[in-house]
Structure prediction request, 290 residues.
Amino acid sequence: MACTVCGSDLHTLAGRRAAPAPSILGHEAVGIEVATGRRVTWSIMACCGECDRCRRGMEQKCERLFKYGHAAHTGAPSGGLSELIVLRPGTTVLEVPEGLADEVVCPANCATATVAACLRVAGPVRGRTVLVQGAGLLGLTAAAMASAAGAAAVHVVDPDGERRALAGQFGATAAEAEGAPAVDIAFEFSGRSTAMPALRVGGVWVLAGAVFSVPPVAIDPEAMVRGLWRMEGVHNYRPEDLGAALRFLDGAGRRFPFAALAPRSFALAEVNEALEYAAAARPVRVMIRP
Ligand SMILES: [Zn+2]
Ligand SMILES: [Zn+2]
Prediction:
């Protein structure tokens, strides 16, 4: 039915991200399941369920992992920029709740589920102060989810003024170009942080943005010890995070203008124009429909 263009697709096209060719790009898709007629979303990866990592709850790091939209094209379509896609065994397929626009549902299996994974590892959010570093779709979603989960304050940091203005519509209580007070939970989505954020005692820094090579960041081991801090890396998500993402979008998420983040849609035949527009104008998302 539809597929939104992710930042990772643009990284691949620009050569910043290694990918096999030829391949069918696109993973943030929603579609109609041919056999049942259900409108469904699915996990961006298929996992075997049997390897050591799968059994240890790290399905997203399955030793036989398959990622939609990032795989070599070898026959059956495996990317979202296609009229049809063949889903493999080991894929989490969930029916989409009624009344959610395609613009909202497409990124559910990418940004929304990843942020759900970030909140899962961060621990309880209610009453905590939260920092969100980077106000792209991950950061805006995190601000909205943290706000909906009862965070006492949500600080968003992003150098882009337009993105900061958007943050206010997604639950941020403050948005700054840089700097933030000490917080209980910090989420790193920019990939560009040059220092650890200031954390309160018991604080956690959850990193998910650096999916490309970045310079190292210094940590203060004594401060980490005395502060009882944690650092957590999150890459992709577990199957249950996709369910949490849909429940959020179908519940508290309806308060936030997610649909407005993908204001333009293109036909699949215009995909090159759409990708050029996405790279040049840098909207949060561009939608493509067959
Ligand atoms: Zn994506
Ligand atoms: Zn596995």
Remarks:
- The chain has two domains: 2-109+257-289, 113-233.
